[in-house]
Amino acid sequence: MNFRVVANLLSAFLVCLNFVGIQSNEPDVLDDVSDRDVFDGFVIGNVAYLFRDSELPGSDNAVFSLAKLIGVDRAAIHGAPDQSEQELINQSHDWEMQTSVSQLAAINFGGSGFIWKVEHEISPVRGGSTGLPPTFLAYVKGDGSVIKADRFLLSCANLHHGSRIYSILSFEDLTHKSRDTPLLDGENVLELARAAVNSFCTEALKDKLAVQFRFHDQTLLQIPVRVRNTGEIVSYDIWRVQFTISEDTTRSTPIALWVTKDGLVSNLSLDSWDATNRRVN
Question: d(Cα 26, Cα 136) in Å, to the nearest integer?
Fold first, then answer.
């Protein structure tokens, strides 16, 4: 759909919406975030994107008049995923994907004024897809600057009796290497992942769940993170160590632990997860 048509429809009916809270294509996962400084978010593959209240403009920098907002064309351009985000979308789907603007709305955030919400529908470049298409969201302030989402590598295992185990590592922790820490090989990485699992089972799951973690495989991945001014995509290496969680003899559920090359292991938690950076405040 041409975004100019969408924007014209929305300008007639939706621009005066007040913000009402998180509306996501992965509501259960985002409802389990323990950090309340989050006004919206979405999940694509193994990456969770969270938009924080603290990133909204203050009243001195807010735009309170619709007439002073940047136009819909510029909002759509500024809200488009950059090259690194597009590559991350491709990796998440293991296929070349494309994004197209499906909705724009100027939303009233009260003391933070009007902000454009830009929704992109994700679809294959070649071939078709079934079910509801995944969505990429962006929030564009009145001056055209984009509210950057905090990003997290995420894996979760849904257990049959209703509990859920999370494995979380922030992109900030991925990109900030500890000084004077030697890079680890695959064997060291697996030892760290096993130690994290054992600690989680001993401390978090003690007297709560009877499950077993069994090693499945491990892979060294490259995660695109940002784009330099030259247009070069900057990627970081991360180990994905996959386990299966066995609840009984007939059921097993996969989960991935993320391990940086200098040895930081993703945080395991039960039924909720913290959207925090462990290396960077």
Answer: 12
